[in-house]
Structures are given as structure tokens and as C-alpha cells.
Specification:
By secondary structure, the chain is an all-alpha fold. The protein has helices spanning 3-23, 32-35, 43-63, 66-70, 81-89.
Length: 102
Amino acid sequence: MNSLDVLVAHTAGAEPYWIGAVVGQRPSDRDREAEGRAARLDAAALLQRLAESKTCAHEVLDALTLADLEAPRPTTVRLAIPDLLWYNTGAGPWTGSGRRGV
């Protein structure tokens, strides 16, 4: 498994989910587990995924209205318990004792 492949696959999956599905209310077929198994994708495939993600973001964000920004957005995201604890207590392993770099 190549960590750059995984990072790009995750980024290209997360952005359309949060912007397209949550904010834009578009259907999502995201397979988060598969993002973590991305293996040996060539540069063209990685760039294609990022381009599709960028296109989705632009389409959704360009169409937003003030009412859209004020509306609640339900999500089905599942955070791991340690992530919730670190966020809520302000103690995360990547920041020492601070809140996620805040």
C-alpha cells in the first residue's frame, strides 16, 4: 500500500462527501474503507480523482445561497471514540495537549 495513494484517495473521497453530500445534499456513494486500501494508483488516476473532487466542490459551492449556509446539514459520519475524546477534551496526540492545532 502506498501512503500517497491512500492520502489522495481519502482526500478525493472526503471532499465530495462533505461538500457534495452534506452541504450540497447530493447522493454519495463514498466507500471510506476502500479509500484506506487504495493501492498503487498511477499519477493519472490520482489526478483524475482530485479533478473530479474539485469539480464537485466548485459546482456545489458556486450554487450556495445564504439560506443554504444557514440551514442545518445532517450527516451520517462515524467518528472514532478517540477522535471525539481528543476533540472534546482538547488533548490530541498530534498537538501535545492542545486542540487539533488550535
